[in-house]
Structure formats: structure tokens, C-alpha cells
Protein 1
Amino acid sequence: MPRQIQSSEQFQKLLPKAQELRVVRTADFVKLKLRMPDLLYTYKTNEDEAEDLIKSAKDIEVIEYTPVEEKKKEKESESPNEEKKQKEGQPPKQRKSK
């Protein structure tokens, strides 16, 4: 079970022992996740403080994650383009019958 860190001082104390740092950005906050050999620590913070903490992670692998909602929005924005192509005179793909 992950543990939540309450202060940036705690985060900086754990940072040298971490194997990787995962960054999850949302509209309201940034969640930093420190993967330790035995446990996962999470810390919620604002964008400015998160950038400072990420810069202080020099020898640790930093992995940026895109939230699922943003991926869905990207797919939704791509689908109208495909519909336009079909409406512009391209015939729809036909399925082969068995």
C-alpha cells in the first residue's frame, strides 16, 4: 500500500534512496511518486514546487505519465478527422464476408 508524504522535506529525504520518480500531472495538482525498493511514496503538490523537486532528482529516472482522461480526449479529437475524410468522398472500408 502506498504511503502519502505530507511535506517537501520528507520527499527530499527519501529522494536519494529512490529507484525512480513518476510524475502524474492533472489540472489541479501534480502527483510525484517515489518508487523505493520496498514501498511506493506519493506526494501531491502544485506545479511550481513539483518542478523544483524534479530538478533536484539528478541521478533518478523520471517518468512522466499522461492521465487517462487526456488520452481519451486525444482519441476523441482524432475521430472527427476520420469522419470528415469519409464524408469528403472516400468510400468507407468494406468488411470481407466469411
Protein 2
Amino acid sequence: MIHHILLYKFKHGIDRIDEHLKVISKFKNNTEGLIDLKCGRNIGYDPLKEFTHGFIMFFKNLESMDKYNHSEAHNDLVNLFKWDIENKKVIDFEDVKF
């Protein structure tokens, strides 16, 4: 399984955050290879307090994540909200098998 983790810092005063969360949540049942998706507001403490929201997407495999990242739906999402984001970090990893 591939974990696609995104940390966002929305610009101050942005009032479309709920809209953003609703749009990204629609990917959950409409994206081939996407097993699950979680998102929410950061409730933690420094040093990660800079980021306002986190997203975790669980993909079946790397091919599924690559297909999603290069899809028209993903590009539309990026273009819709790119001006609302001040900073973001992304990390992808595969489960370690012990």
C-alpha cells in the first residue's frame, strides 16, 4: 500500500477551506486504486503548527497513485485551489514489511 501524505498551509483569510475538503473527499469513491482518504484541520503543536490541514490518501500501489497524480481530475483540483495555498509538503511511502 502507498501512503500519499499532504500538509497544507492555507493563506490567511481563505474562506473556501470547507469547499476544498468537500472536493477532495469526492475522490474517495471515484478514483481507481484509492483505498481510503482522510483529511482534517491540524490540532497539533509546533513545529507542524505552520500547516493548517493534513490529507492522507491510501493507494493500492504506486501505479494507482501515479495515475491519480496525472489525471485530469487531479489537475483540475490543483488549478482550482492553487492560489489558496501558502505552503505545502508532500511525502509518499510504501508500507514496510517486517
Protein 3
Amino acid sequence: MKDPIVAEVRKHRMEHTRKFKGDLRAICADLRAIQSTCGHKVVRLPPRRLSRAKQPRPRGKSPR
């Protein structure tokens, strides 16, 4: 089942990518410029430390 919202987001993302010919630096610079002039408040939260129980397991051999 196709989600129309997801389809629209992907369409606009592809248009933006084509506009800058896939140049990620240019795309990011443009998005930052849009963000700084849009008037919306940008919230940046500090990273949260994971509690001991929620920390990811180290990769490798599993304990048995």
C-alpha cells in the first residue's frame, strides 16, 4: 500500500536532488538557508545518555 504523504515527500526530495545534481553539500547548504529564513523555531536538544539496561550489546560473539 502506498502512503500518499510518503510519496509526496519522496517526490519533493527527488526534485531537490535533481536541482543540485546530487551534490550533497549544495543540498545541505540550501536546506540550511531555507531553515534559517523560514521563521520556525529550531529546537536542538542535547544527546541523552542511555541507561545501563538500554545500552546496545557489543557486537561480536554472543555470550553462552
Protein 4
Amino acid sequence: MDAHVLGRAALTFAFLLCSLGLVTWRQSRAFEANQALDELRRQVSVVQAEQIELERDLQVRRSLGNIVEAAEAIGMVTPSAEQIVILGKGGES
């Protein structure tokens, strides 16, 4: 074979190998990015589940039954009619 043709074939082959290496590197970077994205999505799902659990807990704690129970536990009682004073706008009773 002619040296010129052999050199051209070697250069073409080297270019092909470099191109394949670049594609492989790019695909591995994309795969790593997808793994990171999947991990972030998983973390978001966990945080959303925790948020729902906290909101549910807050609703339970804000329920009238819980409030009455907590008030009675610290000695509070429901006032009688004589103990209730309704004030007007100017502060007069």
C-alpha cells in the first residue's frame, strides 16, 4: 500500500476512535446526571411525604378535642355565664 493511503487510513481510524471515546464519555456523563436527577427526585418525594405527615399531625393537634384536653391538663376550665363579660367597641360592658 502507498504510504499516503496508509497514513490517511490511520488518521481516519484515530479520528473514529476519538469520536467513539467522546461519545462514550458524553453518555457516561449523561448517565451520571440522570442518576443525580433520580436521587433528587427521590429526596423531593421523601420531603413531600414528610410535609404531608406534618400537616396531618398539625391538623390533629389543632382539633378541638386536643385543645380542650390540653387546656384541662393545665387546669383551665370552661367559664360559667357569670364569668363572661362582652365588651362593646368603646370598651364599655
